[in-house]
Structure formats: C-alpha cells, structure tokens
Amino acid sequence: MRVLDDFTECENDVQLHGKVALVTGATSGSGLETARNLAKRGARVIIASRNAAKLSDAKADIIKTSGNENIVTRTVDYESLQSVRNFAHEMYLFEPRLNILINNVGAIALEDRLTSDNLHLMMQVNYFGVFLLTFLLYPLMKSSAPSRIVNVSSLAILLGYIDLDHVNDVGGFTFKYYANAKLADVLFTVEMNKRIQGSGVNVYSMDPGLIKSDFFRNSNNTFWKSFLNAGLMLVGRSPVRTALMPVFLAVDPRVANASGKHFRDCAEFYSSWFSNDAVLTKRLWEESKRLVGITPEEDWEILQVPN
C-alpha cells in the first residue's frame, strides 16, 4: 500500500471565491479542518451537524483562523430521514448554488437498533442518510456545474459485504455495520457516476486513513473507548493533513477526469475492484432509493433532469 508521508501531492493553490461548499460532520477533527481549508480559499462554507452548540463554536473557530466570515451553519440529524429532507429543503431555499459537497459524516459504536425510518441506525447514519442528501442535492449541484461530490469512506470497506436482503438486520457487531456502510458509500459513488455522466458533476470516494480523533466516543465500553481513542491519537494522522485529501478531490484539476474513482493518499486506490460488479451497484442504487423513500417529485431520474 502506498503511504503518503508529506502530503505534498495533495497540495494546490486553487482559490474558491464565488464558490459554495457544504461539509457534513464538520464540528471537529478532519471535517472541521476540511471546512477551514475551504474557507481559507475564499469559499462560502456551510457546515452541518446535529449539535447546534458545536456548530456555533466551529463557525467562530473557522472565521477566526481563516478570516472568512462567509460561514453558515445548518443542523441535520442523520438518524431521521425527515431531518435530512428538511436540510436539503433549506439548501434550496437559501443557497442558489452548490459547487462542493463533502460527505464527511461518520460514526461507530451506535446502538444496535432500527431508527423510526426502519433502517439500522449505523447504516442510516453512515450510508442511507448520505445517499438521500446527495440524491436530493444533485439537481442543485448540476445547475451549479462544474461541481464535485466527495464521499469520505474508510479502509474498513475491505471487510465490508453488501447483502441487500439483510442490510438492516439487528444483532450484528458494530464494526460490521460500519464496514458495510462505508463500502456502500463507495459502491453508490460508482453507480452515481454512471448515471450523471456529462452533467458537469463529478463524484469521488476516498479513504482518509487513521486520524487522530475521539472516533470511538459513542462506545458504552469505557475501557475500549479509551484504549482505541488513545491508539488513534498515537498512530493517526493529524486532522489538518488528513483534510488535504478531500479538498484535493473537491478542487484539484488533476482529477477532473477521474469521476467515479476511489482514492487514498490523493491517488486512485483499487477502483477497478469496486466497479466490477455492475449488477450489485445498480441494485444497491435502486434499493437505496426505495428504502429512503425517494418520491416521484424528488426523483430526478424519473423527471429526466437533462445531463
């Protein structure tokens, strides 16, 4: 596996004045640093999370360190598909354009249960909510083209498995759901790229590697939570450097012709393995639309939004 040490391959001087970027999961860690990086480039940056207090703190931090006051906060709770729909509706009400969407939301060690939407909580937060938001915002991004979508996945995809007949079954190991959800993020990237070619919207997935963070904060096991988070702080990459990778995919002209590919360390990473099963990616796409309840009014594929 190629390891990036200095991150110089990710760096560029692309400016984003007049562009609008949305970063989810942006109140801490690499999500916060991604939003800060985009703000320093001059973009209008929308940061989204479920915690209004943390959003307020993150906004103040980004403004102070970037000098860019064009920072907007929006609340969204991926545990509720209605919350995701409300958020997308707000985007259309208040944002005439959207050039960059970075789906950075991710969580592990959530409860082993179904949500009110009858989806497994881990799968909904890490995949189905992401799918729904991206699907709903696509027409806005198309009208703002050229635009880019970056789906932040994980190396855990190598342990993932998509069984659509049992994807929401309760009673499994939390890491299994996380791996499956992050694999689904990559597979839907592949399928979406096929469906929007020629639209001016590019879509990528990426593995950020291990990051210094409190990623296991939701665990109920105090020992393992402390042990695993300590391990991340010891061997993980800094959030500042990790943020260079999604920003690279969101802005760099060198990947303009690499839509649909999976990246690690700012280089294509095993993309062919994910794209080989066209039957699976198509079925995942269609089943995801059904499970999140895409309505005829929301379905730009039925409405035939021209590419």
Automatic annotation (TrEMBL):
Molecular function terms from GO: oxidoreductase activity
Signal peptide range in chain numbering: none
Record carries keyword Aminoacyl-tRNA synthetase: no
Pfam families membership: adh_short (PF00106)
Keyword Oxidoreductase on entry: yes
UniProt keyword list: Oxidoreductase
Protein known as: Retinol dehydrogenase 11
Organism: Euphydryas editha (Edith's checkerspot)
Source lineage: Eukaryota, Metazoa, Ecdysozoa, Arthropoda, Hexapoda
